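Long-time lurker, first post. I've been practising inverse folding by hand and with some scripts of my own, and I keep getting stuck on stretches where the structure tokens seem ambiguous. Below is the full token string for one chain I'm working on. Before anyone asks, I'm not after the true native sequence, just a reasonable design that respects the backbone. If someone could post their per-position residues I'd love to compare against what I wrote down in my notebook.
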């Protein structure tokens, strides 16, 4: 997952702050240091809202209550409705490679300690995103009985996008936000752009990787080497209900938003050998690292640290 490197001096003094978040860390960088405190405050408020709304790991989250609705349509908050709609859009554009109905499969493979105790990993049928009903007029979501939504493939990236936009409005300058490695930018960047370190695990900035520079958009990385449980990784192939198998250890993607980048990086892990052709069809710059540590660049991703 990407990790932010130090940003060199620009016309205004750039400010940054890092804090613990969701088992990893978040970093907020403001193009003008005077706006940093306001930017951090907005990011913290946004991530708190996402946690209590979209977390699969909290008994009191709105998503948990939705999953317990026993097949009845539920009126949800605007934030949860947006998060579910975003997850379903990701499923559509990837033709089901990224599917929010993998919740039961994740539980079966031990990725929710709150629900996974004493469960033996097994194949779990993934119902498919078409089973989820949305009523935009009433802000209502229908999750059929026996289906468990998990928004992990898109909610964190959506939080990064929304937090960056909110932080710009508060700070009055360009802002870059990294939430556990999902990176989103908004507003005007420093003159030299935003420098981002792309590695397998955002918690270890000294790992092998690459530094790139962006001026807008977002970068996300999906990896089979982190968030492992019971010997398996957390990226489920909806076609099998099992952790995805394939040649890629890590896939990083640059896109117009962090959500689009994370959707594509997750899909690439699931698609395996078909991922390079799919990414090229989408015109998405990507960096793919194989299990053998070989690196492949797609769609204009720089071969050395450079601009995107």
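-- Answer (accepted) --
I ran through it position by position. Result:
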């Amino acid at each position: 997952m990407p990790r932010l490197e130090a940003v060199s001096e620009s016309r205004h003094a750039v400010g940054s702050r890092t804090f613990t978040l969701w088992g990893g860390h978040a970093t907020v960088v403001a193009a003008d240091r005077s706006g940093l405190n306001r930017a951090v405050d907005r990011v913290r408020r946004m991530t708190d809202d996402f946690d209590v709304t979209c977390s699969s790991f909290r008994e009191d989250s709105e998503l948990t209550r939705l999953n317990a609705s026993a097949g009845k349509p539920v009126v949800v908050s605007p934030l949860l409705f947006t998060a579910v709609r975003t997850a379903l859009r990701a499923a559509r554009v990837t033709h089901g490679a990224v599917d929010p109905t993998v919740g039961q499969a994740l539980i079966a493979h031990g990725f929710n300690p709150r629900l996974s105790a004493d469960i033996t990993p097994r194949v779990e049928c993934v119902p498919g995103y078409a089973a989820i009903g949305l009523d935009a007029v009433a802000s209502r979501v229908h999750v059929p009985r026996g289906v468990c939504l998990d928004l992990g493939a898109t909610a964190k990236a959506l939080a990064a996008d929304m937090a960056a936009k909110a932080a710009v409005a508060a700070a009055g300058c360009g802002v870059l936000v990294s939430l556990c490695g999902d990176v989103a930018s908004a507003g005007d960047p420093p003159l030299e752009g935003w420098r981002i370190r792309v590695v397998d695990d955002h918690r270890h900035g000294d790992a092998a990787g690459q530094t790139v520079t962006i001026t807008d958009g977002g970068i996300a990385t999906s990896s089979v080497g982190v968030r492992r449980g019971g010997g398996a990784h957390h990226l489920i192939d909806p076609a099998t209900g099992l952790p995805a198998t394939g040649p890629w250890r890590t896939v990083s993607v640059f896109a117009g938003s962090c959500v689009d980048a994370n959707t594509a990086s997750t899909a690439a892990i699931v698609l395996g050998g078909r991922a390079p052709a799919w990414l090229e069809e989408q015109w998405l710059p990507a960096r793919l690292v194989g299990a053998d540590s070989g690196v492949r660049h797609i769609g204009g991703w720089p071969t050395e640290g450079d601009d995107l």
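A couple of notes from the structure itself: Residues 289 and 295 are 5 Å apart (CA to CA). Confidence is low (pLDDT under 50) at residues 1-11. Happy to go over any region you disagree with.
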